[in-house]
Amino acid sequence: MDRPAPPAQPELEREFSERIAADERIEPRDWMPDGYRATLVRQIAQHAHSEIVGMQPEGNWITRAPSLRRKAILVAKVQDEAGHGLYLYSAAETLGADRSRLLDLLHEGRQKYSTIFNYPATSWADVAAIGWLVDGAAIMNQVPLTRCSYGPYARAMTRVCKEESFHQRQGFEAMSVLAKGTSAQRRMAQDALDRWWWPALMMFGPPDGQSPNSAQSMAWGIKRFSNDELRQRFVDATVPQAEHLGLQIPDPQLHRDGEHYRTGEIDWTEFQEVMRGNGPCNRQRLAARVRAHEDGAWVREAAAAYAEKHPAAA
Ligand code: 3HC
Fold first, then answer.
1. pTM given for the model
2. 169-222, pLDDT tens digit by residue?
3. Hey, which of 4, 39, 113, 228 has its CA 20 to 30 A from 45?
4. Whose CA is nearest to atom 7 of ligand 1?
């Protein structure tokens, strides 16, 4: 018996658009436009790369944490970031991406990770500021992704966001201990805020008028809010927190405008330069990432050999 001819492409595209319009979840086995798939692989891969490269600035402080409690919290957080990377590489694999290929693209500088991780963490207060500001910005950006139209990404984000809220709270708590501490500790906290504030605003991406991917990503239900909308939400949430800490946001133009706080102009030239690889730590971060990957080759080989010998356990 002849098999029915598969629906023509236009029919498939119409059905896909109707499903997106109805806010339905798209799953790995569903038909999807090539552009939708490619956009998701691009964004999920960069998100995963950001998680594992993001382990470095804080990871360097694990051996220098000021107490056993802080060390235990930091170890848990850095371990969480590794796990977030693994969830996200798994989500990319559901789209047909090859994990080792994605890592090659990262190592060759042909795929991005968030610019924020190319800044140095020069004092313990930076670890606090990263938790408070970087994870705070990440939550603002990731909570809408729990409603992303692509099922595996949205479900990965649900798990990630639960752990991110612990990351942000421990950072804010560490920051408040410093801000209420000695004058030297207060100076450390203010210095960290001065250095991490503007790069944290850049985490949300370029301004809406210079974001080539946003319109299509929003039409496909991948992005739920624009870069500027989420950035504004982050500013509105974080300025009162800085005031509570008794710290100054390093922006003389910052002012209240009704229910919002308006910032001065972000240095998009700096953003583009760091994105191009010319940030303070780009080379070290990528070199450390490549070294870790190469040093871990024996683990991958052993796991593959074991899986071959014990297929049932794989
Ligand atoms: N760092 C590096 N590249 C960035 C960037 C940033 N902060 N912001 C934007 N870009 C890149 C984009 O990737 C895009 O380049 P591409 O087309 O070559 O990929 C270009 O700049 C233009 O930006 P668009 O706004 O058009 O791109 P997107 O629509 O992809 O939006 C985004 C950018 C908002 C970052 C979006 O990709 C996103 O929401 N990604 C998922 C969240 C994420 O990756 N967060 C990064 C931090 S993860 C983290 O902080 C972990 C936490 O545990 C610490």
1. 0.95
2. 999 999 999 999 999 999 999 999 999 999 999 999 999 999 999 999 999 999
3. 228
4. 203
Find the 227 Cα to ligand 1 centroid distance in Å.
Answer: 9
Ligand 1 pocket check for 46: Cβ under 6 Å = yes
Q: Which amino acid is at 47?
A: H
User: CA-CA distance, 247 to 75, in Å (whole number)?
Assistant: 27
For residues 100-122, give the mean pLDDT: 97
Q: Which ranges of the chain would DSSP assign to H, the alpha helix?
A: 9-21, 34-53, 55-59, 68-93, 99-107, 124-129, 135-142, 151-179, 183-202, 214-219, 227-245, 268-273, 282-295, 297-309
* Residue 134, ligand 1, Cβ within 6 A: yes
Residue nearest to atom 39 of ligand 1 (CA): 141
Read off the pLDDT band of 10 (50, 70, 90).
Answer: confident
Counting Cα atoms < 13 Å in the Cβ hemisphere of 287 gives: 4
Is residue 252 within 6 Å of ligand 1 at its C-beta? no
Does the CB atom of residue 39 touch ligand 1 within 6 A?
no
